[in-house]
Amino acid sequence: MTKTANGFDLDTSGKRVVVDPITRIEGHLRVEVNVDDKGVIKNAVSSGTMWRGLEVILKGRDPRDAWAFTERICGVCTGVHAVASVRCVEDALGIKIPENANTIRNIIHLTLFVQDHLVHFYHLHALDWVDVVSALKADPKATSELAQSISPWAKSSPGYYRDLAGRLAKFVESGQLGPFKNAYWGHPAYKLPPEANLMAVAHYLEALDFQKEIVKIQTIFGGKNPHPNWLVGGVPSPINLDADGSVGAINMERLNHVGKIIDDSLAFIEQVYVPDLVAVAGFYKDWLYGGGIADKNLLSYGEFPDLANDDSNKSLLLPRGAIVDGKLTEVLPVDLKDPEQIQEFVTHSWFKYPDETKGLHPFEGLTEPNFVLGPNAKGDPKKLIEVLDESAKYSFVKAPRWRGRPMEVGPLARFVVAYFSGREDVKALVDSTLKKLDVPITALFSTLGRTAARGLECLWAAQNLKRQYEKLLGAIKAGNTATANTSKWDPKTWPKDAKGAGFCEAPRGALGHWIHIQDEKIANYQAVVPTTWNAGPRDPAGNLGPYEASLLGTPMADPEQPLEIIRTIHSFDPCLACAAHVISPDGQELAKVTVK
Amino acid sequence: MARVETFYEVLRRHGVSRRSFMKFCSLTAASLGLAPAFAQNVAHAMETRPRVPVIWLHGMECTCCSESFIRSAHPLAKDVVLSMLSLDYHNTLMASAGHQAEAILDETRAKYKGQYILAVEGNSSLSLDDPYCFVGGKPFLAQLQEMAQDSMAVIAWGSCASWGCVQAAKPNPSNAVPIDRVIHNKPIIKVPGCPPIAEVMTGVVSYVLTFGKLPELDRQGRPKMFYSQRIHDKCYRRPHFDAGQFVEAWDDAGARQGFCLYKMGCRGPTTYNACSTTRWNGGVSFPIESGHGCIGCSENDFWDNGPFYERLVKVSGFGIEGTADDLGLKALGVVGVGLAAHAAASTVKKLVTGHNKPPPPAGKAGGAS
Amino acid sequence: MKPPLSPPTGHSHGLTRAPKAMYVYEWPVRVWHWVTTLAIFVLAVTGYLIAKPLHSVGGEASDSWVNGWIRTIHFVAAYGLSVAFLMRVLWIPFGNAHSREIFWVPLWKAAYWKELLQEVRWYGLVKKAPAKYVGHNPLARFSMLFMFVLGTLFLIFTGFGLYSEGTAAGSWQRALFGWTSSFAGSSMTLRTWHHLAMYYVLAFSVIHMYLVLREDIMGRTSMASTMVSGWRLFRDEGTDIDDAEEPAIRRGIEAEVRAEEAKEPVPSPAAQGKG
């Protein structure tokens, strides 16, 4: 038994359980745990198992193109890297974007929050709480009553549920379970009654149909989704309400379309997502595992500047700040450019530093792949890796630290930072939900708390989407239709040498991009992404990151059926393609990796 | 008692009549070059055949293809996944994880040998010496090759699987390659795009399932039905291109009137895709309609054909980097300077030696005439 | 009417002693040359404007067709170039020996390389006097083949490849040239190649024009006017030999010309030419 620097007890003596792949996430994640004889997790190892090297690829390219490359880091939280990228380029070059461009960017980005949180809850996370097979036992009439008791949502008649139950039965009878095959149906960790399960299955399917509607806002302003188009200096879609050629621009029809989608989204979240969330949470109130470092260290870069080109907390709708060592009421200022604050370590990552006991700020960061398994690892990386050795290198994710501490990022971190920064809108949402569930605020620091914070943030995002939309209409009414600032579009107007940082809050948490532009080209580029903060391995001091810490102490009913593990990991909404990235700012050639 | 639902039952459940079903079987038989009598056999096969299992693998990718797939409006993604086929393995959607998930792969290989479709999102490194992607502890390359071996056909989703896409852009640090570099002897349908259009993805799948054959492919392995024309050929802004009406700067008068985005670097004229006709997200818009040029995301090497905001690609050669015009004009300049120098030197030489002056008519050598 | 293929002088002097005038370029070759010249000029200008269009015009799109015209002119000129090129190739079996010179070079012959070196030395201002050639000199042949003929062929193939992208599936352009974009990897890459190849041929054209003018001024044979009249005039009649080994080399190459002429019917003495 050892104690980590951040106060967790580790015991590696028990049975090792490997879960790989962790499914229903973006990317490739592996988790290994040791459980004691009672099935309680005593050690946890989180490993990102893919690397693509996008920042190496960015070197030497046009900074105005960077958003497109970085956007392809992740297609689930599509656009977040584009936001951070255009912001870092604009920061470096001193470009001020027009007010409307800021508002439209907020609309595009809020749209992602709404859609991504919704898809995460129903399609990536719900099956950790909802037993699809148990839904077969549900009484359609009782299900209808349950649904109607929690929400005015129209699709809740007994006939609707009877039809669904019939189709579900037929599907299960077919013997081809498709995506529901080999899962953990009947697992004792499932607590919902059959009726709640059936209701959730109905909403799983409805949400699958509806999510594609939400993103149409991105399609209108960005031309497509996933991966809409962005622009350094503004947004690409011009506004032309009633002059010549307005059919080819953002006009009344387009704006009405956006407005309708926002209203529909708000209705779906208010009447389906949030009631479901509260209903499901009500059955799991005593499963408050998975907190990890959530009650200690939380970080938010803040998001949604209400004023263009102003990223101070007076402008940000969700504030920037850090909470450390459990001092919740003390929100500390965060500066992305301060070399003392954000640093990345690679002691346990498959990368190489000259001195791996030290962390590097993104402006000085280095990433050279170095895939070596530790002495206690088992297996052959050309055939099958059986067990990793966490005493050595074990992940393609680096370990970022804020003032030396691992930090949790994501909806929970944002909401806690906002709550303790005294944001009334967030406080009202959180307090009313806690009251409804009759749990103390400490209940937030758990798997379920993370999931709840995401649902509340989804509602918050939809409400603010409507506000930003109205703000856009107001600006257009006042005669302001500019959407792009092209004064520094031409590379000849740029300084020879410029550095910039771009912040962003992705649905999954704090995201930063750092760029160094030299002679009109990218000299180096670096991103520190949400899942790097959350999924990162240990640092030289032995501090556990959020994923690893959150699994400790969780009891498993059956270690062979890792439902509890994926439930907690899913509550972070992992995005591994984001996390496993690389930068080589000094332009060093990547060393050829040798496999032992 | 578990019973396998057949393709016929699925069609019936979707309101297809017995009569239409038989007609469809005749057409299928005909399209496969079979005699009309074989329609009965086709019908029998369809009536008794279970839904086609699909194994959807994720390699080095960003999951934008999966995200696009679930945006499909017609058919709805849920109908494709739950009724038309049997999506038995899909990292992002499946309920099971870890070894329960990996067991499905082995089971499918054994039970449906030669009968399942392998859909691949993302790609792998070229060799096992590049340890950049593991799934279930196995190198993704090994998993991909194993699953391809026993599949009926392979669908390469998106530009990663089709061309290599962003991770294969120079200098390709992970040595990523399109899947046809590592899968041989299997028909591969490439459905490129970053991501492909949702309805194009479900369109390809439902074509295969409905007509019981693989779509006709072009030279580069893409279904002709969606990739045989350029975005430019069907672009609603094409009249502005021909007229010579271009957006000259972002948000200028031309931009607000929907002029052609060619000068802003639009890759529509070089990109084969259905964006300008099928459009995106249920036909709401497509990049050009929303004011940004096409970046050519369904084209091979489009990342290295940048910058996206210039019509002319930056190429490098002879130690200089620039567009074809930069390089060409520089080369012409060098030639011009060279020739001028040569002319000057020739003149000097001539003045000095006086050698090449045409001799007087009465030359020393005997006249040839 | 077939013009005489051989100058009015006998072969007994060998080629070391040049005649005053020789008929070199038959009319199809001359027509081809000038059609191609015009086409290349038009193609280069319109091609440049296709890649970098003129400033936008206003009004309704249906009122203008600026870019459309530029492209149409480009296509017309391209057809002109291609048809002329094709006719020129078809002329090879009918034309004289000079009509073949630019389509191949005897790279396998040591004598050719020696002569080539002589020409390089002459143009490098090392050698004092140039050799005289009735048709193209070895260096000219080399650049004609590798810069002009192959460059133009490349432009024709890539050009039709690009053009076929806009033609219907099943069109002959697509059937014949559609493979070019998959060969290049992508349509954009093909465009870049086409664009770069233009500069390659332009570079040739500039060098070609310079050397022709220079030769006209400083050399001993007519150049520019030869492409108009077909006759090459030799302005001096002095020996063109200032390197001892030259005759042997020359005989090696020009033997082919002679062999060719031997096959021809009895050359009729040219009425033209002075004296």
**Could you tell me how far the N terminus lies from the C terminus of chain A, measured between alpha carbons in angstroms?**
30 Å
What's the order of the H and E elements of chain B? HHHEHHEHEEEEHEHEEHHHHHEEH
- Describe the sheet with the most strands of chain B: 5 strands, parallel
- Termini gap of chain B: 111 Å
Helical content of chain B, roughly? 25-40%
Provide a short characterization of the protein structure:
Chain A contains 16 helices and 16 strands. Chain A is α+β, with helices and mostly antiparallel strands and 596 residues long. The longest helix of chain A has 32 residues, at 252-283.
Summarize the topology:
The complex is a heterotrimer of chains A (596), B (369) and C (275).
Chain A: E1 2-3, E2 9-10, E3 15-19, E4 29-35, E5 41-48, H1 54-58, H2 66-71, H3 80-93, H4 99-125, H5 140-150, H6 158-173, H7 194-214, H8 216-222, H9 252-283, E6 298-300, E7 303-305, E8 316-318, E9 321-323, E10 342-345, E11 378-380, E12 384-387, E13 399-402, H10 411-420, H11 424-437, H12 447-477, E14 497-506, E15 509-518, E16 521-528, H13 530-535, H14 546-551, H15 563-571, H16 576-579
Antiparallel strand pairs in A: 1-2, 3-4, 4-5, 6-9, 7-8, 10-13, 11-12, 14-15, 15-16
Helix pairs in contact in A: 4-7, 4-8, 4-9, 4-12, 5-6, 5-7, 7-9, 9-12, 10-11, 11-12, 12-15
Chain B: H1 7-13, H2 18-31, H3 39-48, E1 52-58, H4 64-69, H5 77-84, E2 85-90, H6 98-111, E3 117-121, E4 124-125, E5 134-135, E6 138-139, H7 140-149, E7 153-157, H8 158-163, E8 176-177, E9 188-191, H9 198-211, H10 224-227, H11 238-243, H12 253-256, H13 275-278, E10 315-317, E11 320-322, H14 324-353
Parallel strand pairs in B: 1-2, 1-3, 3-7, 7-9
Antiparallel strand pairs in B: 4-8, 5-6, 10-11
Chain C: E1 21-23, H1 27-51, H2 66-91, H3 98-101, H4 110-123, H5 138-164, H6 172-177, H7 179-184, H8 187-218, H9 226-229, E2 231-233, H10 246-263
Helix pairs in contact in C: 1-2, 4-10, 5-8
Overall description:
The complex is a heterotrimer of chains A (596), B (369) and C (275). The two termini of chain A are 30 Å apart. Chain A contains 16 helices and 16 strands. Chain A has helices at 54-58, 66-71, 80-93, 99-125, 140-150, 158-173, 194-214, 216-222, 252-283, 411-420, 424-437, 447-477, 530-535, 546-551, 563-571, 576-579; strands at residues 2-3, 9-10, 15-19, 29-35, 41-48, 298-300, 303-305, 316-318, 321-323, 342-345, 378-380, 384-387, 399-402, 497-506, 509-518, 521-528. Chain A has a 3-stranded antiparallel β-sheet with strand order 3-4-5. Chain A has a 3-stranded antiparallel β-sheet with strand order 14-15-16. Chain A is α+β, with helices and mostly antiparallel strands. The model of chain A is unreliable at 582-596 (pLDDT under 50). Chain A has one domain: Cytochrome-c3 Hydrogenase, chain B. In chain A, a hairpin with a 5-residue loop joins strand 4 and strand 5 (41-48). By secondary structure, chain B is α/β, with parallel strands linked by helices. Chain B has 2 domains: 7-226, Rossmann fold (3-Layer(aba) Sandwich), CATH 3.40.50.700; 229-317, Irregular (Cytochrome-c3 Hydrogenase, Chain A, domain 2), CATH 4.10.480. Helix content of chain B is 37%, strand content 11%. Chain B is globular, with a radius of gyration of 29 Å. Chain C has a two-stranded antiparallel sheet with strand order 1-2. Helices cover 59% and strands 2% of the residues of chain C. Residues 1-18, 238-253 and 264-275 of chain C have low confidence and may be disordered. Chains in contact: A-B, B-C. At the A-B interface, helix 1, helix 4, helix 6, helix 7 and helix 8 of A face helix 4, helix 5, strand 2, helix 6 and strand 5 of B.
